[in-house]
Amino acid sequence: MNRDLLLVILSLLTWGIGEGMFISFEPLYLQELGADPVRIGAILGALGVSMTIAQAPAGYLSDRVGRKPLLVAAWVLGILSTGLMAWTTSLNGFVVGLLLYGLTSWVFSPLYSYVSAARGALSMGRALTFTSASFHTGAILGPLLGGWIGKTWGLRYTFMVAFFIFIVSTVLIMLIRPQAVERAHPGERRWDLFKNTRFLRFLGVILVVMVAMYLPQPLSPNYLQNLRDMDLGMIGQLLSVGSIGIVVLNLILGQLPVRVGLILGQLAVAGFSLFLWQGTGFYWFAVGYFLLGGYRVASNLVNAEVRELVTPANMGLAFGVAAGVALLATVIAPPIAGFLFEQNPLWMYPVSLGLIGMGLVLSFRFLFASHPKKNDSHSELSALGE
To answer: For residues 291 and 335, what is the distance between their CA atoms, to the nearest angstrom?
Structure first.
């Protein structure tokens, strides 16, 4: 493993501790600040918008100006926005900080591109799942620490501690070396990406799959607190189990062929919905949260599949577009979850199961039944790297 990839892993590990302290407690803190379930869903949907709009521009810029500047800028914005969330005392001020934090998601495209170039002998699937595992190794500790701080002093203090942890992570990411900008081949244009019909079809699959898997997640902490009488400490333990699941499933499913891992990741999230819907106690819910790790695995393997569909010169833009489509799930799903929660909190889970079934059908059709033919057009073949 080279020096730069190690620094990325250490920075992600540290950031995972900080983000893990507050990210899944946000719906509960919004509730403390006076937001009802429908408004929480709307706020989280707006967060999804802020995360989504940053993706394609960031991907385009990472192809043009380089990856490191965008990575460093995302880390710095993360510090500033977390500071705002920590030191504001109003719902409106917190929402502003939350939306600014959402913009840091532009990191996905330059990060995936950077890891792809720095991975050495590692396969794309292994490199992405391994770096994700490093982030979520830190996130194992984060919810435990955040739950304890929230229970002892209040959830606001979790943001304050995370602010200082993020400073350490930012110093580490600043130490990575810049990478050369990929140049397009003669006759190749970056916007040719949108003539790649196989890539465009895969975007539709991504949207359905990610909405289905994300739907039950945002309001599950509220469900556990309000209906299952679990305190912040217990919810923090469940979230840490979820991070363990992400690490373990990343390391296991990341060794499998990308297409197989993507299917199994969706099935694991179906298990999460089933256990939270039908489970009767902490240990059932812990199994469910462990299986929720399949969501992050599937997210990483989606990008590994995208990498196989595009040329290096279009890699950043492709990752940005794919990440933007995936993050539309965070726009679409929370308002639906808020509406379902208002009607009956249990409804989130069977609806998710039905949508996951639809996503599995589409995934099978694309990944296993649809293959490029040898007489495809030149643009399609070049996009597949043939």
So the answer is: 24
- Taking residue 92's Cβ as centre, other Cβ atoms within 10 Å add up to 8
Distance CA 386, CA 198 (A): 14
Place of tokens 């296993």: 368
**From CA 57, how far away is CA 213, in angstroms rounded?**
25
Element (H, E) at 17: helix 3-22
**Whole-number CA gyration radius for the chain:** 20
Give the relative orientation of helices 55-64 and 108-118 as an angle to the nearest 10 degrees. 40
pLDDT (tens digit, 9 = 90+) per residue, 183-202?
A: 655 555 656 777 888 888 99
pLDDT at residue number 162: 95
Distance CA 257, CA 203 (A): 20
- All structural domains of the chain with their residue ranges: 3-176+194-383
CB atoms within 10 A of CB 169: 24
List CB contacts of 69: < 8 A, sequence separation 6 or more.
178
Q: What percent of the chain has pLDDT over 70?
A: 91
**DSSP structure string for 128-185:** HHHHHHHHHHHHHHHHHHHHHHHHHT-THHHHHHHHHHHHHHHHHHHTSPP-PPPPPP
**HSE-CB of 127 using CA atoms within 13 angstroms:** 24
What type of residue is 121?
A: A
Question: What is each CA distance from 68 to 4, 61, 216, 281, in whole angstroms?
Answer: 11, 11, 34, 45
Whole-number Å distance between alpha carbons of 368 and 305 = 12
Nearest to 343 by CA among 22, 34, 18, 37: 37
C-alpha 223: how far from chain center: 21
Is domain 3-176+194-383 given the CATH code 1.20.1260.10 in the classification?
Answer: no
Residues of the chain with pLDDT under 50: 372-386
